[in-house]
Amino acid sequence: MDSPDQSLLQKLAASRIAIEAIEPVVDEGRFAAKTIVGHAFRVEADIFCDGHEILAASLLCRRRGEESWRELPMRHLVNDHWRATVVFEEVGHHEFKIASWVDLFAIWRMDTAKKHEAGQKVSLELQEGRLLAEKALSVRTGGTSNDRSALKTLLAELTSSPSEGDALAVLTSDDMAVLMRRLGTRTNLTETDKAFPVFVDREKAGCSAWYELMPRSQSGSPDRHGTFDDVIARLPYVRDLGFDVLYFPPIHPIGSTNRKGRNNSLTAEPGDPGCPYAIGSEKGGHDALHPELSTFEDFARLVQAAREHGLEIALDFAVQCSPDHPWIKQHPQWFDWRADGTIKFAENPPKKYEDIVDIHFYSRDAIPGLWYALRDIVLFWLKRGVRLFRVDNPHTKPLPFWEWMVEEVRQVDPGVVFLAEAFTRPKMMKRLAKVGFSQSYSYFTWRNTKRELTEYLTELTREECRHYMRPNFFVNTPDINPVYLQTGGRPGFQVRLFLAATLGTNYGVYSGFELCEAAAIRAWDWGRPGNIKADIAFVNRLRRENPALQQFTNLKFYNAWNDSILYYGKHTDDLASFLLFAVNVDPHHPQGAQFEVPMWEFGLPDDAAIEAEDLVTGQPFTWTGKIQHMFLDPCQRPYMAWRLIPPGAWQ
Amino acid sequence: MDSPDQSLLQKLAASRIAIEAIEPVVDEGRFAAKTIVGHAFRVEADIFCDGHEILAASLLCRRRGEESWRELPMRHLVNDHWRATVVFEEVGHHEFKIASWVDLFAIWRMDTAKKHEAGQKVSLELQEGRLLAEKALSVRTGGTSNDRSALKTLLAELTSSPSEGDALAVLTSDDMAVLMRRLGTRTNLTETDKAFPVFVDREKAGCSAWYELMPRSQSGSPDRHGTFDDVIARLPYVRDLGFDVLYFPPIHPIGSTNRKGRNNSLTAEPGDPGCPYAIGSEKGGHDALHPELSTFEDFARLVQAAREHGLEIALDFAVQCSPDHPWIKQHPQWFDWRADGTIKFAENPPKKYEDIVDIHFYSRDAIPGLWYALRDIVLFWLKRGVRLFRVDNPHTKPLPFWEWMVEEVRQVDPGVVFLAEAFTRPKMMKRLAKVGFSQSYSYFTWRNTKRELTEYLTELTREECRHYMRPNFFVNTPDINPVYLQTGGRPGFQVRLFLAATLGTNYGVYSGFELCEAAAIRAWDWGRPGNIKADIAFVNRLRRENPALQQFTNLKFYNAWNDSILYYGKHTDDLASFLLFAVNVDPHHPQGAQFEVPMWEFGLPDDAAIEAEDLVTGQPFTWTGKIQHMFLDPCQRPYMAWRLIPPGAWQ
Prior knowledge:
2 copies of one chain form a homodimer.
Chain A: H1 6-13, E1 18-23, E2 33-36, E3 40-48, E4 55-63, E5 70-73, E6 75-78, E7 81-87, E8 92-102, H2 104-117, H3 123-138, H4 145-160, H5 164-171, H6 174-183, E9 187-191, E10 196-201, H7 203-206, E11 208-212, H8 228-241, E12 245-248, H9 296-308, E13 312-317, H10 326-330, E14 345-348, E15 351-357, H11 366-383, E16 388-392, H12 399-412, E17 417-421, H13 426-435, E18 439-441, H14 450-462, E19 471-474, H15 483-503, E20 506-510, H16 533-545, E21 556-557, E22 565-571, E23 578-584, E24 591-596, E25 609-614, E26 619-624, E27 627-632, E28 639-645
Parallel strand pairs in A: 2-10, 11-12, 11-20, 12-13, 13-16, 16-17, 17-18, 18-19, 19-20
Antiparallel strand pairs in A: 1-3, 3-7, 4-5, 4-8, 6-7, 8-9, 8-10, 14-15, 21-22, 22-23, 23-28, 24-27, 25-26, 25-28
Helix pairs in contact in A: 2-3, 3-4, 3-5, 4-5, 4-6, 8-9, 11-12, 15-16
Domain Glycosyl hydrolase family 13 catalytic (chains A, B): 212-543
Subunit structure (chains A, B): Homodimer.
Region (Disordered) (chains A, B): 258-281
C-alpha cells in the first residue's frame, strides 16, 4: 500500500516537537491577549518530544506586519513547562510564536560526561562532538560573527592538543556549551503553526482612577444650566482628590419628543432637561454639543485645562437616539419600522422607553453605512482630543460591530481606550473584553463579603480572563446605589473606596460619592462635614507612588483569621514595592484578627523581624514574628495599609 | 475615512452570535475527541449574542467526508450554556459543528404575551406575528412538508377568524411555536468556523480486560519451548477467569548477537532464549514468527480458537531491532552509524543495551521508506486477524510517526486498537493519546492510597484528558513489581485487582498475578492454594453484566469516613445500573467506616429506604437512612460491591 500523500507525511514529520498549552492565548488566537507597554509579558508553553532528547526553545516576537522577529531564549522550568518574558516598548498590535529544536550538542555533552564519569572510553565520542562543532561552523543558524570566531578558536585548540583529557575539557566546557547553544544546528526545528496576537495598550488602559461629573450640574446652582467653564472651575477639586480621568455622561443635544420628566416621570415639565441618553434633536446628534453647555471652542479649552490638571477627559458613547435625532430623517433605513409605518421605540415588554429609539445594526443599508457613521462619531471626538470612551450598554449592540469599530479606531490611534459599561451575564462581559474593550465594568459593585471578594478577585486575577479582561471597579453608578452603601454609613463608603482602589488598578466613583451620598442632586456642598475626601486623596496617592499598585494580577490574599477582615498584598516581581492592606468589611462593628506577615515572600523564617511602614501615619516600625494582631474600628478607620521594606533596603 | 475591506466587514458582521468554550474539543480541533460506538456523546458550548434575543441552536454531525449533516437541536441549560447529545452508530472518523440563530418568532411570542398580560393593546403585534409566519412559509429553512402544511392550516384559521382573542390564541399557541422553531427564518445564522473531529472507536477500545501470557512459557515444563498449541490449550483457563483480551509479548525471531542471559546477565548461556524484545535474526524480523513457536498456520488456528473462547489476541509492536535484524543489511540507512563506522547500540549512558539497536526515524531515507515499512508490519498482522496492538515504549519514537501510522491503519480498519505502553512524563502520555492511541498505560500502578487514587482518578475522569485518553490500569508488568504487591500479601493483590477492574474500564494483569506472585517463572502451578482466581472471575463477571461498569467517566467518589477506605460508585445516566464499591486499601488491618448511601442520586430524602444487593453473596437487603456502617477485614475480603435498585424497579 502506497500512501497517497507523501508531502503530507513530510510536513507532519517536520513537527517532531510538541508545543502546546501556550499562554497567553485567547480562544486559539482568535482574539489578542493584552498587556501594557513597558510591563513584563510572560509567555509559557509545554514543549517536549520523544525520547530523552534535550530541547532548546525560543520566543519570537514582533509588531504585527513587521518582517523580522526578535528572538528570546525560553527557559525550562519543570515537567516540560517553559517560560520567557518580553517587554513590549510600543503601543499597538504585536504577535508571538514559539520555536523549539533538538540540541544535539547538549545531548552529546551530557552523555559523554556520564560515560567519562563511569570510567568508559570516550575517544569516539570526542570525535563525534568535534564533528558537531565543525558542522555548526559550516551551517549558519544563529549567533554573531564573534560567536563564530570564538568557536573557531576553541576548535583550533583541539587541533593543537592531542591529549584526550584536554580535548574532553575543551569540548565539554561551559564556553563551548554557550557557543553551541547559539550556533549549533537546529535539528528538528519545530514552530507553532501560527503566531498569536498581543495588543499592547498604553498605561492608562491598565491603571486609571475615574471621577464622573455631569457638566450641566456644575453651575453651583440648581437654577442655572452648567457650562464647560463651570467644569473648568471644578478641575482643581478633582485633581486634588487625585483622580486622573474625568468622565462626562453624554454632552449632546437632548430630544424633546416624549422627553422624560424628573424622577423618570413620563411627561416633562417645561424646563426639564431630559435624560442625556436621549441623544439628538434638531440641534444635532452624536457629533454635536448640547447648546447650553457651550461651544467646541469651550470644549477644546476644557480638554486642554484638564490636561494641565493631570486629567484626561472620557466621553460617553451611547448608541441610541431620541426620536428627534437627525439620522431618523436622513437614514430611516437604520431604524426599525413597524407594520403600521411607525418607528419602533426601545422597550423591554411590558416597559416602553418612548424617548429613545434603538438603532438596528442589521437593517437595510446598516452595513456599511451605519457602521461607518458610528465609527466616525468616535473618530470625530478623537480628533477633538478625547482618547477615552465609556461605552454605554455595549452588550445590547452586536459583538462584531465592536470588534470592527475598535480595530478601525486603533488604526488611527492605538492608544484609544474603551470602557465597556456592560452589567450583564458573565460570558458576554468577557466576550466584550475579548473583542477589544480595554476596560470592563465588573460585578465588584455587588461583591461585599470577604468570601465574595476573595472568590471574585481570584477569578479575575488567576483564571484565563486575566489575559484579556481588565475590570474597572466602580463603587457606584447613577443607576446603582448598592445596599451596602445605603446601610453602611460613612465607614461603608470608606470600605468600598479602599477596596476598589487597592484591589483594582482601574476604579471609579460618581460625583457625590466623596460626600457619602448617592442621591442625584444638582448642587452639592462639596465641603460638607463627614466627607471622605481625605481617604480618596490618600488612596490615590498610594496608587501613584507605589508600582505594586499599578499591577492587577499580582494580588495575593493572605491569612487573617476573621471572616470580616479581608487581608491582601501586592508586590512587584523584585519585591522592591510590597504593600499590605487590611479592610474590615463590616461597617458596623470593630473587628480584630491575628494575621500572617508574609515573611516567606522574602525567604525569611517565621520568627524573623521585618521593617515596615504604616502608610496612613507614615510611622516606621518592626514586625517580629510572622503572627501579628490587628484591630479595625470602622468609627476610626476601617482599613490599614502597610509597606514592607525588603531586608537590606531600609533607607 | 473609508474602510479598505468592506467584504471583511460583511463577513465579520455575519457572525453575530458567539459560540465558544465548545466541548469536547482537543487542542482547538487539532486532534479528535474520542467516543465509543453506540454511547452517548455530549457536546456543550456557550452560545449567546447581544441584546435580549432568544436564540436557537443545533448540533450538526456527520461521518468525515460525507456531504450532508445530521441536525440535532441543542438545549439551553443555564448561564448561556447549551448541550446536545448524539449517538454515533458507526466506527471511524466523524465531525461536528454548531449553528445558532436568532429566533425572531420566539421573541415576538414572549414579548406579545407580556404585553397582553399587562393589558396593553397587541393588534399591531398580531399583524407582525402573522407576517413572521407567512415569511417562514415563503423562505424554506428546515422542517418537513407536513410542517409546512400544518403551518398553512394554522394561518388559514387566522384568515377565517376576525377576533383578536382568537388570533392571539392561535399565534401564541404551543403548536405554532413548535412549527416556527422548525420553519422560522434563521436570522443571523452563525456557524462555528470549522468542524471538530471525533473518532468513534469500537467497544473494545473503551472496555477491555487484558491477560498477558508469554507463549514460549506455556509448555507446562521449564525444559520445553512453548508452542501456539500450548497456548490454545490454555484458552479455557483464561476464558474462565473472564478476560477478553489475550496479549503476547513479541513472538518474532530473537537475535543472537550480544544476546542477554538469564536475569539480564550480559552473556547468554547456550540455550538461553534471549529477550523477546531483541527482535530479528537471520530467520526474519517483525513479520516473522519465532521458529520454535510454530507456523503461521498454527497462528491462524490460535486466533480462531481464541475468538471461540471470547478472546481477542493482542500483539506487541516494539520498534527496535536486534543486531541481527534483516533490515540492518537491507536498509543500513535506517539506523545510526558512528564516526568509526560501527552501528550505534541502544544506550542510556552510562548503561548500554548491546542486544538492541534503535531505528532512526529521521535518518536518510527513513521518510517515507522506514515509515512505510513499519506501517506495513502492523498491516501484515492485521491481515492475520490481529486488531489489538500493545505498542512498546511509544514515547521514545516520534509523535508524528504515530499520528501518521495510526491514521494509515485506520484507513484500512478503523476498529484497530492501539495501547500505548508509555510509562513516562505526564504530558507525553497525554499527547500520545491525542495523536491516536486508543488506550494508555497510566500511573495507576503507583497510586495506592485513598488520596492518591482519588486525585488521580478525578484528573482522569473530570479534566480535559477525559475527552481523548483512556487509561488501561495494569496491576503489574514484568518490569514493575510494585512495593504494594511485594508487601501486601494476598489482600494486596485482591485490592489492586478490584481497584483496577472497577475504577478502570480497561485493565490488565500479567500471568502469575492470579497466584499472588510477580516473579518470572516459566512453569506455574495454576491451581495452587491462595490464588485469587475466584476474585478475578467475580469482578470480570460484574464488568460484563453491569452497563455502569462499561463507562469510565461516570465514576463518583462518595463519603466514607476512614482514610483507608475508598468508596465510590458508577451508574448509567438513567440510574438503572447503579453500583457501589468499597475497598480497604490497607492490606494489613481491618478497617471500619460510616458511609453515605447516595440516596440523593435518586431524589430520595436522607431517611429513605432503598433496596440493594450484596453482589458478592447475591443477598438482597434494604438500607434505611443515608448513614450506614461497613467493616472490611482484609483477611476475609478487602472489598465490597453493592447494586442499588432504583425505587420501583425491584423485580
